[in-house]
Amino acid sequence: MCDGYLQGITAILAVNFPSKFEEFTHSGALYTISLALYKVFSIFLTKAAPWFTMLRSVNGANKSTIMNVTLKTPEDIEKMRIAGRMAAEVLELIGEYVVPGVTTAELDRICHDHIVGPQNAIPACLNYKGFPKSICTSVNQVVCHGIPSEKKTLKDGDSINIDVTVIFDGFHGDTSKMYFVGAPQAHAERLVQVTQECLYKGIELVKPGARLGDIGHVIHKHATENYYSVVREYCGHGIGRVFHEEPQVLHYGKPGTGLELKEGMTFTIEPMINAGKAQTKMKRDGWTVETRDGRLSAQWEHTLAVTATGVEVLTARQEENF
Description:
Blueprint: E1 3-4, H1 7-16, H2 29-48, E2 55-57, E3 64-66, E4 69-70, H3 74-94, H4 104-116, E5 122-123, E6 136-139, E7 142-144, E8 159-168, E9 171-180, H5 186-204, H6 212-225, E10 229-230, E11 234-238, E12 245-249, E13 266-269, E14 272-274, E15 280-282, E16 289-291, E17 297-299, E18 302-306, E19 311-313
Antiparallel strand pairs: 1-11, 2-3, 3-4, 5-8, 6-8, 7-16, 8-9, 10-14, 11-12, 13-18, 14-17, 15-16, 18-19
């Protein structure tokens, strides 16, 4: 489940860096202002973050923070490994139920019952800041945070992202996967494939000494080279005992900028890639985010741990090779 930007900080930056506002040609004053704030905040993350990378000890020798980034102990990561495997298991089992005629509410029930039943775990999305269901189901033009509904029946040719977060023994595992309903449409199949490639290219760069800007750059580069756009309003996030924590992981950026990765960091990468323009809109339910132009969107997500030599994908599915 992706994180959004901090509106208070962006407002302050907008006042202090007015020269960064440019190229806003979209109609609607509120939308234009919001997009400007997002853009300025992204500049802050890539430009200012390197100045805040001093390490300090917290709660003893085995835990540290970088800014507000919590470095996990080996014991923490082992618990996250279990939660991550559980989240992956939910995505593995739900695939056979993604068929024409099923409602997204039924998919939610199946996932919920498995999490609270056989797994004896907690669905993190349920009641999170008022979210009413246990998973997110984002169909076709929905970018993220789609709410499962009895009124939403899947039909042949649809594409759907199912986003699952499991809490077990106090730690979170967060992951999402794209599914096709019946026979996929060729253009949707290509978008989904390129989006997954964006995720994998970002994961390949995760290691101590790399920077968040490196990850964002390779994702944005691959998406735009394939004539797609990257959603900027929502991003990956740190994760552990807390569902959404620092750092925010943007899916665009400049190489060599942003927070330097350290062993023990845990976070998600979850690129949202649009077939058309990058701009999004929020529906009246306060959760569902759609493409502004109505064209398709796709997303894949994994929870990762930075190791001494590289990366461990904590939510890897059996179909994947890492």
